Amino acid sequence: MELKNVVETVENGEQDAILKVLQIYNQEKSQCFTFEDEEREARKKMAQLLIKFLERELQPSCQVTCLESIRILSRDKSCLDPFTTREGLQTLARHAGIDYSEELIREVPDLDVILEALKCLCNIVFSSPRAQELTAEARLVVGLTERIKLYNEKNLSHVFLLAALRVDIRQQLAQELRGISLMTDTLELTLGVKWLDPHEVASEGSPPLPLPRQETERAMEILKVLFNITFDSSKREVDEEDAALYRRLGALLRHCLMISADGEDRTEEFHSHTVNLLGNLPLMCLDVLLTPKVRPGSLEYMGVNMDAVSVLLDFLERRLDRGHKLKETLTPVLNLLTESARVHRQTRKFLKTKVLPPLRDVKNRPEVGNLLRNKLVRLMTHIDTDVKHCAAEFLFVLCKESVSRFVKYTGYGNAAGLLAARGLMAGGRAEGEYSEDEDTDTEEYKEAKPNINPVTGRVEEKLPNPMEGMTEEQKEYEAMKLVNMFDKLSRQQVIQPMGMTPGGTLTPLENAVHEMAEERSSSDSDLGLD
Q1: Is the predicted pLDDT of residue 101 greater than 60, yes or no?
Q2: Contact 417, 388 (CB under 8 A)
Q3: For the purposes of burial, counting CB atoms within 10 Å of the CB of 428, is it exposed (0-12), middle (13-18) or buried (19 or more)?
Q4: What was the pLDDT predicted at 105?
Q5: CA of 355: how far to CAs of 311, 327, 350, in Å?
Q6: Distance CA 515, CA 194 (A)
Q7: Distance in angstroms (rounded) separating the CA atoms of residues 7 and 29
Q8: How many CB atoms lie within 10 A of CB 86?
Q9: Which residue, 54, 358, 364, 377, is most buried by CB atoms nearer than 10 A?
Q10: pLDDT of 7-24, one tens digit each?
Q11: Residue-by-residue DSSP string for 262-325
């Protein structure tokens, strides 16, 4: 059907005629996501007419059809103006049941109307900064939270979008509207769990069944909303009341890790959102991963239930094996495990037994092989700086931030990037709080240790001396030739010779020489030498 005919009917026709042409238009354009430029003005006019038409007293079926047409038009970013006015957004908000201009939220009896109106608002808010501003001014997020409280609203996409796109709304949700508590309650209802202890929940059935598809979708929407409104929680101090709230949420997230969804892909996605949110919790609250009692079938280590940590480790290895979009998919779980290991001794020791068991194979480079250690060491030279840093930091923490132990498991060549960044090129230990127990070496490692090349981290065959048979003059000539080559590359700024400061950081060679000379001079003066 020609668009001009649809516009003409909507402008001049009766309700039945309008309903009929809109149904045809919706059917024809249901999968349309690109629009012709020559019809742009006609679409804008149609958008204006539909907003006015929606303000009439209409049957729910007619409202749904009109909202479907608005949703189709809202896909065109060039035709959003009629929808991004106060009046237009208020009309859509009223049909979505989230208009907070009155004291109470008006209940919309037809759920299909609510759903279509929310879909329209999601499209419009996502594509229009102006709509985002007006939505914040109209306090529609208050209406959304009231709907969740009063009617257990199922569609949370609009809350997620507002929290993602507007920092002020994110803060309003977290603080004024107590959104973390509200969404935690909603997650608990969605999961259908019972509390065994203050920090442990379980499914009603035994053994637990996979979470049904609808509940999984809703739980993931809740997790995404919570991720946005807790984004800075791990970076700030929390009081006792907030800590109790985060621990309650953490207990539910642990349960999310321990259950499956409908299908492997859906389970992986569900666990991914769970891991992302766990990374936002304050570090002091991550102890809920370890608090459940050890029960028959649980994985116990040092008297602690390690089921959740084991699931996280399996999740990490699956992500490593996929090798797809490592920054987005791998760094959240790596960071979570790193921080958990840093603050919980049992977690670190358990992870070390799995990731860095006592060395036996010293014939191959640390990055060669299919063990988890090999896969992580390979990431330490990854092209993406964030991935490289996360992998190195994780292994460094498992080594109790000891340089010698870190080099032992990874090789100095792989470790150099992190050591340079931390100012530890000269060795030593970072400022972490760790026990003093020693690393245990296998007999194979002790026997091979004198022949291990610390740079590559493996035993290497002795290479012939390239200067064997040369006279002293020939050696000096070759040495000067090498110096001249480096000098030429340096002057052409192809390379920059670097040196190490007394503090263990890399710096341009001339600065390093100057600092070392100053330190030597200072030492001599302290000794009274002249």
Answers
A1: no
A2: yes
A3: middle
A4: 47
A5: 14, 20, 9
A6: 64
A7: 15
A8: 10
A9: 377
A10: 889 888 788 899 999 999
A11: SSHHHHHHHHHHHHHHHTTS-GGGGGGGT-SPP-TT--EETTEE-HHHHHHHHHHHHHHHH-SS
DSSP 353-374: HHHSPPP---SS-TTSSSSHHH
Q: Output phi, psi for 302, to 5 deg.
A: 55, 35
Phi/psi zone of residue 185: left (φ > 0), alpha (ψ -120 to 50 degrees), beta? alpha
pLDDT at position 305: 94
Q: Please give, one letter per residue, the 3-state secondary structure of 153-164.
A: CCCCHHHHHHHH
Single pTM value for the model: 0.77
- Report residue 463: phi and psi, to 5°: -85, 150
| pLDDT tens digits for range 414-440 | 988 888 888 877 666 666 666 666 667
Q: Which of 107, 7, 94, 105 is nearest to 48 (CA)?
A: 7
CA distances from 266 to 27, 219, 263 (A): 30, 12, 5
Q: Which positions ≥6 away from 148 have C-beta within 8 Å?
A: 156, 159, 182, 183, 186
Structure tokens at 351: 């992870």
d(CA 309, CA 299): 10
